[in-house]
C-alpha cells in the first residue's frame, strides 16, 4: 500500500524553488514571496501559490537549452522526466503577435530561449495577473505593451531562486 502523502527525499545539490519578488528598486507587491508551480499536466499554466510545489524542483539548465532552468520531480512515476518554461503558444516572446502578454507554461521536454528580459526601455519580462484559473498566473510581456500601463490586476515581477535545504 502506497502512502497518500509520500515524504520527499533530500534535495540534490543546487536544487531550488522559484519565487516571485518585486522588480529591483520597487516596493513589495501583492505577489511577492509566492512560488511558481504547474497548474496540471492537462493545463500546464504557471500558477503562484503561498507554498512550494510538492513534486517539482528547479535545476540550472544549459543556457543554450532555454530559460536557464529545468524542472525535475522526485516522484518515482516521474523518473527521468524534465520540464521547462515555455510560452503557451510556442514561438518566441514577441513573434509579431498583437498580444501585450502571453501565458507561460511548465511543459515537458521543452524550454523557450526567448524568455530573457530586456531593459526598462522596450521592457519585456515577467508579469503576474489575477487571471481565470483562481490563482495568480505567470505571463510574459511583449514589446507591444511598451508605453502602456498594466491593468490594476497585473504586476511586473522578477523570479528568484530559493535554495532547497
Q: What does this protein look like?
A:
InterPro entries: DUF7907. This is DUF7907 domain-containing protein. Pfam families: DUF7907. This protein has strands spanning 16-22, 35-38, 46-49, 56-60, 69-73, 83-87, 101-108, 125-130, 136-141, 154-163. It has 165 residues and is an all-beta fold. It has one domain. The protein has a 6-stranded antiparallel sheet, with no helix packed on it.
- Output the number of helix runs: 0
Which sequence of strands runs across the widest sheet? 1-10-8-9-7-6
How many domains? The number is 1
User: Which segments are poorly predicted (pLDDT under 50) over 5 or more consecutive residues?
Assistant: 118-122
The structure class reads mainly beta
Shape: globular
* Sheet with most strands: 6 strands, antiparallel
Order of helices and strands: EEEEEEEEEE
Protein name: DUF7907 domain-containing protein
Organism: Lasiosphaeris hirsuta
InterPro entries: DUF7907
